[in-house]
Amino acid sequence: MTEAEQQQRFDEKIEAEIKIEPRDWMPEEYRKNLVRQIGQHAHSEIVGMHPEANWLTRAPSLKRKAILMAKIQDEAGHGLYLYCAAETLGADRQDMIDAMLEGKMKYASIFNYPTLSWADVGAVGWLVDGAAIVNQVALQRTSYGPYARGMVRICKEESFHQRQGYELLMEMMKGSEEQRAMVQDSVNRWWWPALMMFGPNDADSPHSAQSMAWKIKRFSNDELRQKFVDNSVRQFKYLGVSIPDPDLKWNEERGHYDFGEINWDEFYQVISGHGPCNRQRIEQRRKAQEEGAWVVEAAEAFAAKREAAKAA
Ligand code: BYC
Prior knowledge:
mainly alpha, 12 helices, binds benzoyl coenzyme A
């Protein structure tokens, strides 16, 4: 087949909702764009373990500690599925990790904010995992097969994460005045960064048009952000916490909630490496890599030994 014929076959598959698989021909730009997005997604899952891990040793009960530990382990698993999905596109895992450590590859902005109180563990579960689900449910229908299939399992686990966060906050809201204040303070700090997780407004999103045409993205950044806001309002009311946005109001004509302007200066500061915890997170990842190097070496030595035994 000529390249033009291969391109035509690819376009037909995208049009007909047939998944693109690792051995299929694909345009180089499609491959690169996927490695960028899936790699960033994988890094986010791994870096995302740190803000929550901060509270493992201070969880208020054995039950809460076990739940938090299980959630953090799930995030490690998500990172691994996603690195594997990127590897099916010919990407090298270590190269992607090195690119992140050198600031050449991004990870989700949200994980550059500190977790200052126990209520933050609940707010991260409810709002951060909640926002991630809205984005990832849509990605279950993304055009690249391994990414779409990985998302199915990830979404199931994210639902548990979101619920554990909400339930934790519900418990705190039944507690003392001080605990309720802690929840409100936490939600005040996490709401706006959660809205930033969906990326820049559509008009300022350089990758959106092409990613939508290739059906890598099924909804735009603004559409998903709106869905998250609309879903969240009822949850805020049930929890008994106020939304830290004086401009949030129902718009009858649009059938959606209007909301205030996001602080885009803050967003660009954070994604360019100047958020509150960027340095700390990269340092933590670098240290984890150095301290875990012996595990990789031991696994490689063991694999080589088995190969040699098989060959003998
Ligand atoms: N943070 O053209 P755009 C989790 C970058 S983890 C940082 O709109 P695109 C969890 C963007 O990469 C779940 N960077 O890009 C884990 C691009 O920069 P480059 C994480 C952002 O790709 C542990 C530039 O801005 N989820 O749930 O079309 C514990 C222009 O943006 C962000 C995912 O990763 C951001 N928020 O759309 C708890 C979802 N937004 O690459 C929870 C997968 C934008 O040109 N990713 N940028 O240097 C996506 O769906 C899309 O990549 C995005 C951005 C919607 C995020």
